[in-house]
Amino acid sequence: MRIGDLAKTTGVPVATLKFYLREGLLPAGTPTAVNQAEYDDVHVRRVKLVRALLHLGGLSIADAQRVLAAVDDETMPIHDAFGVAQDAMVPKLDRSGTRYADALAEVDRFVRRHQLRVRPGAAVRGMLADAVVGLAECDLLGEPVTDTCELFDAMVPAMVEQAEREVATTPHPALRAQQVEHTVVGTVVFEVAYAALRRMALEHASAQRWSAP
Amino acid sequence: MRIGDLAKTTGVPVATLKFYLREGLLPAGTPTAVNQAEYDDVHVRRVKLVRALLHLGGLSIADAQRVLAAVDDETMPIHDAFGVAQDAMVPKLDRSGTRYADALAEVDRFVRRHQLRVRPGAAVRGMLADAVVGLAECDLLGEPVTDTCELFDAMVPAMVEQAEREVATTPHPALRAQQVEHTVVGTVVFEVAYAALRRMALEHASAQRWSAP
DNA sequence: AGTAATGGATAGTAATACTATCCGAAATGG
DNA sequence: CCATTTCGGATAGTATTACTATCCATTACT
């Protein structure tokens, strides 16, 4: 399989594949001559993973590089690699100001309260803090709340259960890289799916509330 | 309150506020002289809404314009405005190919199966179809499945219930614009919050599965 | 044998989200 | 009252991102 075939089977233009090769998102094919290389279904899978991260997950090239570096680093244990990937997948926002610091402290308490095994420096804490700040800034909570994260207390058990089910779905037998890849792509793709489901539920609820039957 | 004060209280540079004014994301202040205008807390709220849409929600300027146009159009009923806003908030991906068409058909069946009141042309259907395609492309389902959306059947009732609770939290009494604004910003901010919670649950589950206690 | 495709390198591009500068007029502070 | 700052409005510039196009000598296909 040469680059043109890879382009054909993935639907990605050759120029873009070359770009991904240059950026290290796609590993080089095995060279057969000075200007020829062979690609296989590992590359096909990788292209699909890259596209899922970039377009479905909305990651930048730089973040995708970090995610894939963690996937590919065979010396890194599965859970560590997932942590690196998770950090890379968190959108980078301006996180200065006391509002954000307070929210982060709240999130830390939330994590401790539920004894969640989330790294102390995990970027996802910042992501939840961003949302907490947004909730306050945009006045989404009726009366002033002492701890915004208490809103989420009730749904933690169900979420953990769901996550455990999801983490357990890795096909067996699987290599380390496949495990990490599976978990990473599952994070972004199911996130889109759940978001879409929630939006559908919101539209349904909005119709029930404000529109004629 | 002049533009400098608006900048100070929102933390957004004057140049950026001027840009938002030009783009119609921020309504003009009431003019007090040929080169002076007065801004109030309506503008403060709007700036926060714009920032939440752009940065937290990751919308483009153009999409935020569409959302805000729906919020501001007083002739548009609440539910219709929410529909327009929802369509504008769906990420625009390449949606050609039979893979996508099949996924969309599956989504349509899903919507009908659960009798969800989602508009036939709602963009959110495409969003869920994107995820369904991603699930298949990236091989996230163990055995080949006849209908991917069946995965989500079990969680629909809980999601609808949650959505109903959320839609009902609009503060009373509230004007039409406030209702729409509340629902719209709730869509994006809670989405980030839930995504962050899920990611935390995933990290927790990953730790339980692959890391020492 | 001739056309097309390849790897590798370099350069160009369209879109996005601001940011900076200039202007003459109005506000502010001592 | 006068120097300094800020104002609204307009125009132009910029940094980044994610590709896309072109060139070249070499190799593959027919």
Keywords:
homodimer, 213 residues, mainly alpha, two-stranded antiparallel ribbon, 10 helices, elongated, DNA-binding
Describe it for me?
The structure is a homodimer of 213-residue chains. The first copy, chain A, is mainly alpha-helical. In chain A, 66% of the residues lie in helices and 3% in strands. Chain A has 10 helices and 2 strands. Chain A has helices at residues 3-10, 14-23, 41-56, 61-72, 78-89, 98-113, 123-137, 150-153, 156-167, 176-210; strands spanning 30-33, 36-38. In chain A, strands 1-2 form a two-stranded antiparallel ribbon. In chain A, α3 (41-56) packs parallel to α10, α5 crosses α10 (176-210) and α6 packs across α7 (123-137). The N and C termini of chain A lie far apart (56 Å). The mean pLDDT of chain A is 96. Chains A and B meet through α3, α5, α7, α9 and α10 of A and α3, α5, α7, α9 and α10 of B. The structure holds a DNA duplex (30 and 30 nucleotides).
Summarize the structure.
Chain A is mainly alpha-helical and 213 residues long. Chain A is built from 10 helices and 2 strands; from the N terminus they run H-H-E-E-H-H-H-H-H-H-H-H.
What is the topological layout?
The structure is a homodimer of 213-residue chains.
Chain A: H1 3-10, H2 14-23, E1 30-33, E2 36-38, H3 41-56, H4 61-72, H5 78-89, H6 98-113, H7 123-137, H8 150-153, H9 156-167, H10 176-210
Helix pairs in contact in A: 3-10, 4-5, 4-10, 5-10, 6-7
Chain A binds a DNA duplex (30 and 30 nucleotides) through helix 2.
